[in-house]
Specification:
- The chain has two domains: about 240 residues, f41 fragment of flagellin, N-terminal domain (Up-down Bundle), CATH 1.20.1330.10; about 90 residues, no CATH class.
- It is built from eight helices and 14 strands.
- The chain has about 400 residues and is α+β, with helices and mostly antiparallel strands.
- A hairpin with a 5-residue loop joins strand 8 and strand 9.
- The strands form five sheets. It has a five-stranded antiparallel β-sheet with strand order 6-13-8-9-10, with no helix packed on it. Strands 7-12-11 form a three-stranded antiparallel β-sheet.
Amino acid sequence: MIRISSQQIFSGGINRLQDLSAQLNKTDEQIATGKRVNRPSDDPVAAARILKLNQEVKRIETYERNAQLANNRLGQEESAVSSSLDILQRVRELTVQAGNGSLSANDRLSISSEMKERLEQLAQMANTQDASGEYIFSGFQGGTPAFANEGDGWAYQGDEGQRMLEIDDGVTVAISDNGKGIFERIPAAVSGARTTAATGSEGRINSISVINRSELQTGGLPSFKLLASGVPADTLTVRGIDNAVQETVTFTPGEPVTINGVQLTLTEPADGDEFTIETGEKQSVFKTIENLISGLDNLSKSGDAGSDAYNDLIAGSLANLDNAQESFILKQTELGGRMNSVESTQAFLEDSALYSKEIRSQLQDIDYAEAISTLSFQSFVLQAAQQSFARVSQLSLFDRL
């Protein structure tokens, strides 16, 4: 015969009530928090996976912030380059107008005045600042204006650094470009000048331009020399800067001749005249506009409209402006490619975050309908257990005597 003491009855009943109450409290907490797993002991395996998923979501959110920052910076840079391109287009239009030999001195001064305004606007674009006040074209020297006017023209003040930002594991994107590469290192128009003159010679270069850039690049000559010979001069010996003979070309004075992709016209050359052709120089877009302004101002004072020097200035400036526009367009294309890459990464990160959160939700979140039903059942069981314990706890042997 098994004997059960009153103490055992009370202890067992209390333990049962405590277990039922704990289960009820756990379900109530799950409903309040909306989470099935609130502590590792609720489901150790699920808790471990949830922890890893939380870390993954935080990692993705960090990269999403980086990607948004990169997109903003690149968008701002693209806008500045686009505005600069519009300014250059207007300067080019003004340069074409300035080439009209029928303009008066006042007309040329008016064109020069607007060019000065456009130059200031271009400098403002080159000194664009981001939301934090850093100059986006200064390389790593974000606190320093990219360009400053030191009295003799606009000059670059930053360094050649390029900022990179990681927008996903193993994926980095350049979020800046230094102004030196955009505004200064622009291929200059080919130029030429007589560097050695024969006695009594009036030889000069009347016009010069690149008509075949691929041939010029194939030749690999940053500059070359032309030595006129013959009486009258009708032969040009082409030499490199090292004076090594490249070829010999016949020409007719006053008519165009093409050498290494460069077309030029020599007027009144004499036997022994030497000309140097520069093809590989770089020139700041600011310098191009500054030279234009200086030429227009000086012309207005001297009145040498239609002079060879003035015509060469206009022709060379147009070529330099075209080179600058081409350089800006290439940079726009490059920026567009980077922005597309960032947008693709953003889309991938968004999908990854959505997937990770969905898996985490399946592991962590509760089914409210099921939880509420469970809570009702647990409440009923606890209430029944409490009533049963209350009755059992009142039983005594003396009640049966």
